[in-house]
């Protein structure tokens, strides 16, 4: 898991976990430009690397690989490698990853309720 600050999560932080620590943990595992989009796409079921890459607008292989490795290390997804030529790799959400889906739904609902309408933005830009 990536660190939330230079000292990261220390054992003494975990002795008496607080709601703030739990919030920071959740924020930390969702941190990354593409992770929310990857979670959303994998919610539909197992996907191949190339399908993920196309869905994300041909994100570079290195960037996608980095995000997937972090998500796998955090236990959000698992990959299955099929021994064939060319190699086939499928990614799917784990139970821990699926537990984040209601949070994504709440984020969508929040955006729908609070994002200014396009017309409002255009009206505010006029002199």
UniProtKB/TrEMBL annotation:
One Gene Ontology MF term: DNA binding
Keywords: DNA-binding, Transcription, Transcription regulation
Presence of keyword Ribosomal protein: no
Cross-referenced Gene3D superfamilies: Winged helix-like DNA-binding domain superfamily/Winged helix DNA-binding domain
HTH hxlR-type domain boundaries: 5-119
Pfam family, one: HxlR
Protein name: Helix-turn-helix transcriptional regulator
Lineage of producing organism: Bacteria, Bacillati, Bacillota, Bacilli, Lactobacillales
């Amino acid at each position: 898991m990536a660190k939330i600050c230079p000292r990261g999560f220390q054992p003494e932080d975990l002795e008496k976990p607080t709601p703030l620590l739990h919030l920071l943990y959740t924020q930390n595992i969702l941190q990354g430009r593409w992770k929310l989009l990857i979670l959303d796409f994998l919610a539909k079921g197992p996907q191949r690397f190339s399908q993920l890459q196309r869905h994300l607008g041909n994100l570079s292989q290195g960037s996608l690989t980095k995000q997937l490795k972090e998500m796998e290390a955090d236990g959000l997804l698992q990959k299955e490698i099929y021994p064939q030529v060319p190699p086939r790799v499928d990614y799917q959400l784990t139970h821990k990853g699926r537990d984040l889906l209601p949070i994504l739904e709440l984020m969508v609902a929040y955006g729908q309720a609070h994002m200014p309408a396009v017309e409002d933005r255009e009206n505010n830009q006029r002199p």
